[in-house]
Write a structure and sequence with these properties.
Elements lengths: L1 E3 L1 E3 L2 E3 L6 E6 L4 E7 L3 H20 L2 H17 L1 H12 L3 H18 L2 H4 L4 E6 L2 E9 L2 E5 L7 H12 L3 E5 L6 H13 L6 E3 L4 H9 L3 E7 L2 H13 L3 E5 L4 E5 L5 H13 L9 E6 L2 H16 L20 H16 L3 E4 L18 E4 L6 H4 L6 E4 L5 H10 L2 E2 L1 E5 L3 H10 L4 E4 L15 E2 L2 E2 L7 H6 L1 E9 L17
Parallel strand pairs: 1-5, 8-9, 8-11, 9-10, 11-12, 13-14, 13-19, 14-17, 16-17, 19-20
Antiparallel strand pairs: 2-3, 4-5, 6-7, 7-23, 12-22, 15-16, 18-21
Helix pairs in contact: 2-4, 2-7, 3-4, 4-6, 10-11
């Protein structure tokens, strides 16, 4: 049985804990590897060595750090297919979706090549007689990233790129479900010229997370995962004086207005709702058609599209629409929630409960489901299902529709489909949600803007990637310098305002 270990000081580090986690092939249900879980002592060792390595890396000028990012981009592109195969085999994503996962992370690394510009401070000449003032952005030191299973390439790249380009060392604790790609990325960074110890990949469970949160050396932690854990990490990090940037769950609504192109909206809902088996924090899981006529016409278009979806392993070809969910427990939870929707009175229009893939009976595949006449009191509406389940909530008016999205406890992403510019503008201005799509189903910002949700979808003051990432991973130091000229004056004992 293959064993997967850690990456510490630029090489594979075999853990000595004796504790392992199973890494499954989601398509077959078989264990394909054993993942070593770190002890607190091993995590502390990785942090200590990272702190030592960060001193020289932080003193390296930003342009040289950016050149490492530039070479990293080239190496990721060189090994794109190898990375995507490893990602698909552990996560279950289709091969094109796995490449998309890597590509969206790669775009953040490309943005980080501009670190010299993003790290520039400010300067004021002659703020007072012979006095200049300037600010500097300096790295925090050692920071940590705790990343989820559903994007095993993209989100580690979102974390490590800005952190490293800003001059920090990073401790990355990836998901135990699909750990291989983060380790492969660490190897590529070493090949790109990153000094040993600046990026440490330490695999672990809650014990490792708590070791990160308790470490007095680690200055900041970034997390993506479920809301309860995001809140736990945020509160515990804040209690120990760390910066925290924690992103949690989602329940993303798409409002479909009567004037929308319903064929376009139906295509968007199928891709956004069922892509990656619904295991996306930006998946659309609630469709809100305005008016019964709109709802009936939308359902009529959705049903044949959903029934034609091809579900299978990534090895079945690029025409597979989505693969298995990540674990058997995830599959069982999805089916439990589907049953709750039936029990609570929702209309199951497309029933995927009996889906069975010949030759992969033990895999974690879940058929597509479509609910109609869902109400806000139902579990399938309130809960993030994280599976291929789309719920339709009928609204009588635009005000009722926007109210549904605004009243929900999650505020990650949302979308509206309409041909009316006034409606779209009102929606974008009023909605209390972090990322908004107008005739765009999955409004994930590009790398030079920031990504982040509101309400219980995000904890912390700054978002991921874009300019916010460099603000998060640096602290500002402001210097007031005086170089007197002319006659030297004696000491002053009063604090005077600048002349």
């Amino acid at each position: 049985m293959k064993e997967i270990h850690h990456w510490i000081d630029g090489s594979e580090y075999k853990g000595a804990s004796g504790r392992f986690s199973d890494v499954f092939n989601p398509a077959t249900g078989e264990v394909q590897a054993k993942l070593s879980l770190a002890t607190k002592a091993e995590m502390d060792h990785a942090v200590e060595r990272a702190a030592e390595a960060q001193v020289a890396w932080g003193a390296t000028n930003p342009q040289r750090r950016a050149r490492v990012m530039m070479e990293f981009v080239r190496l990721i592109n060189r090994d794109m297919d190898t990375l995507a195969e490893a990602l698909s085999s552990e996560h279950g994503k289709t091969f094109p979706d796995a490449k998309g996962d890597i590509q969206r992370g790669l775009e953040v690394i490309e943005f980080c090549i501009g670190a010299p510009h993003l790290l520039k401070g400010e300067f004021t000449d002659s703020a007072g007689p012979g006095i200049d003032m300037y600010s500097m952005r300096q790295p925090l030191g050692v920071v940590a990233g705790i990343t989820p299973f559903n994007f095993p390439a993209m989100i580690p790249l979102w974390k490590m790129g800005p952190a490293l380009a800003a001059g920090n060392a990073m401790i990355l604790k990836p998901s135990e479900r699909d750990p291989s790609v983060p380790l492969m990325l660490a190897q590529l960074l070493q090949e790109a010229g990153l000094p040993d110890g600046v990026l440490q990949v330490v695999n672990g469970d809650k014990d490792s997370v708590d070791a990160i949160l308790d470490s007095p050396v680690i200055q900041a932690v970034g997390f993506v995962g479920s809301t309860p854990i995001a809140q736990y990490i945020y509160e515990r990090a804040a209690a120990t004086g760390k910066r925290a940037q924690c992103f949690g769950g989602a329940k993303n609504h798409m409002i479909i207005m009567p004037d929308a192109d319903l064929d376009q909206a139906a295509d968007a809902l199928v891709g956004a709702g069922y892509g990656a088996a619904g295991e996306r924090c930006m998946a659309i899981s609630v469709a809100v058609p305005v008016g019964d006529k709109t709802a009936d016409a939308l359902i009529e278009r959705l049903v044949p599209r959903i029934e034609k979806l091809k579900v299978g392993p990534w090895t079945a070809g690029n025409d597979v629409d989505y693969g298995p969910v990540v674990t058997r427990a995830a599959k069982e939870n999805i089916l439990r929630l589907v049953q709750s929707g039936i029990d609570q009175g929702a209309e199951l229009v497309v029933d995927g409960r009996d889906f069975n893939l010949q030759g992969y009976e033990n895999g974690f595949f879940v058929g597509p489901h479509l609910f109609d006449r869902v109400t806000p009191d139902m579990d399938i509406y309130r809960t993030e299902i994280f599976g291929p389940v789309l719920s339709t909530v009928r609204a009588k008016s635009y005000e009722e529709a926007i109210g549904l999205a605004m009243d929900h406890e999650y505020g990650n992403g949302t979308a509206i489909y309409t041909r009316d510019g006034d409606t779209a503008r009102d929606f974008a201005n009023r909605i209390n949600i972090g990322m908004v799509g107008i005739n765009v189903p999955i409004p994930v910002p590009l790398a030079y803007h920031t990504f982040g949700g509101w309400k219980k979808s995000g904890f912390g003051d700054l978002n991921q990637h874009g300019p916010d990432a460099f603000r998060f991973y640096t602290r500002t130091k402001t210097v007031t310098a005086r170089w007197p000229s002319g006659i030297k004056e004696g000491g002053e004992f009063n604090f005077r305002a600048m002349d």
